[in-house]
Design goal:
19 strands; five-stranded parallel beta sheet; about 400 residues
Length: about 400
Amino acid sequence: MTLSPARPRSVAGTGTDDGTCALRAGRMFDGFTLSGAATVHVRRGRIVAVDRTGTIPPGVPLVDLGDDACLLPGLVDVRAHLALDAGPDTAGALLAADDERLLARMRVAARTALRAGITTVRDAGDRGFLAAALARETAADPGLGPEILASGPPITTPGGHGHLLGGAAAGTRALVGAVRERHARGCSLVTIMASGDARTPGSDPSRAQYTREELRTVVSEAHRLGLPVAAHAHATEAIADALAAGADSLEHASFLGGRGTVEELRLQALIAGSGTFVGMTPVREAGAYADGVHTAYRALARLGARITVGSDAGTAPDRPHGTLPDAAMELAALGVSPLTALKAVTSQAAAACGAGGRKGRIGAGADADFLVIDGDPLAGLTSLRDIRAVFRAGVRIR
């Protein structure tokens, strides 16, 4: 099937023909610490220097963002589903759309994320490898959306969670083949549904979907090909198996169906000590489930686990695209410091995506992806919604 090309981008030039410019702001969060006034020098979509003296070389256009502005790295969403519409029936909407319509919808979702200051999206599961196709579009024309790190259809058991996306695989040969296909299709990671999920009829989030050995098979082949593995894991058993199998990140980490508090605490300590990333996602409904998940998240934070937070955008009406700033606020509301929450959507998130050298930080050699906001983000993360400007690869987005 031939897919239509994307619409032309809508951006504003900020510098010379090769994108040379200098951005000055009264505050800067570089992905690690907040400081005072700084000037960031950009050329060809990359940061070439960070200056504290205010010196601007002759001929370099200056974009003065203001003394009350704060320059941050573009946000990194470690978990989103661009193919899902955040409606009341995501499965029905998915099945009703052909690839052409679905890709068009994904382009809109990508632009929505970019306008919210999200300049990198790790797509945790699509249909037909459409996110990889969209990733090529945004790479060729950064004004179209964030840099997309695609996983392709998530690997799942036949009839398991997310099977409508087309990634079902059972048995060693099929699992190895699934990993190789994702590598061949240009995916940036592998997502595997280590546990079920209540959003799929007949699926149980408190039970594992694959054995530990099956997970090891996937991780081993993915790592051989240079791909990280993100394991969707609600069940305590699935979390333990994915950790033992060497998964690079544990997504959701809800600790459902555990065999007791002591065991869960031991597992949380193991996670924190392992350096494995924990991809937290919003739990907005009240009740015992939310209380249990929040307790687990607080424990992992106290233990020093490598925490990221993803929006899980597209999966439900309360998770529309572009809501990563809200997820960061919700993480802070659990008692995590604003600094930790901010790192969880910038430098820590970029590291979890294998892009720590390029994304989530402001420093020489990094991509010139920026979010400009009003005020001090460490005084209140609500300022992430007070957007003054967004830059993608050095280009200001209208």
